[in-house]
Amino acid sequence: MELEQNETFEIKGPQLEVLGQAESKLPAPARKRPVAVLFLAVMVAVSVFGIGGARLKGKYNNVVSIYTEESDRHGNGIQGDFSVQMDNAANLTRQCQKILGQDSAECAAVSGLVAQWETTPRTPSAQYEVITRLNGAVDAMYSAAKAAASGEDLDRVEGLDANYVSTQSILEREIAQNYTTAAQEYNQLAGSFPASLIAPLWGAGEAELFAAP
Question: What is the pTM of this model?
Answer without folding.
Answer: 0.74
